[in-house]
Amino acid sequence: MFMTYLKERLSWILLFLLLQFLAVFIAYIDPEIPLTSILYYVFLSLIIFVIFLVIRYQKETKFYQELEEAEDILDFSNREFLSPFEKITGDSIARHFEGLKKTVTENERILDEEKDELLSWIHEVKTPLTALSLMIDRLEDQTLKKEMTYEWLRIHLLLDQQLHQRRIPFMENDLYIEQADLESVIFGEVKTLQSWCIQKGIGFDIDLQSTEVMTDAKWLAFIIRQLLTNAVKYSEASDILIISYQRNGRTTLEIADTGRGIDSRDLPRIFEKGFTSTVHHQDHAATGMGLYLARKAAHTLKIKIEVESAPGKGSTFKLTFPKSNDFVRITGM
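Given the sequence above, the corresponding structure tokens read:
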């Protein structure tokens, strides 16, 4: 900050030095003026000027140091300004800050309205979607029925993803931590995907050695739904392995498929928002949101989510649940 201050006052410092040099020069060329006295005067002036600079530095930079160190815009309403320029700067920042606060407040209101409208629309769409499911059940053409069921399921899953995407920012307000039964959650999600799995010839091999976990059952179901949807989407005529076990006092759930797998260069990015693939970049079925939302939900639930994969050998997703005492840090408990 001191060097910055010197640069700011460089023109004044140069003017002072020029005046001192001018006094010495005049004394040098004019024999009537004693050079020794002038040099003594210049020496004292330099000392006084340095002291003056130090004092002014402390006073003049205090305001700007507060600005530099502040994490947020300072409140200038009760502050006494030491100079007219400080007051001009403070008043200008305060005006802009108030304007930004009004803009942010208005944007938040608009976003809340849009979110509420979208949530309302999703809930309204679910009604005709349920009716459509009942109509599909009455179809006699089995081939058409399977195709219609698959398309219905795709719409259902996309709406569900959108619904949870809007709720995740406020997820901590919606948590209900309890002893959840892994078996019932997993079988519920498998049943939802049943028609799709039958169409693709996919089965499930389930071995749950540990079935009780402390978590929010509704959000856990959402996480598992995203992982199972990915496993089914990228697998053909194979079994998906679902196992759970205890290790170091923690329950781990693994979901493994034998699908196309994930390239090693894509593994670090698969949980990023909107990322699909660099190898299968033209895959229009991928939205790049499922794993991103799953990880965000898992983070709030203190669930560690990991993946192991290789191209052509499938993928294994691991969910490691926290110990019971870890939930004291969760706001919604």
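The mean pLDDT is 84. Try to locate this feature in the token string yourself.
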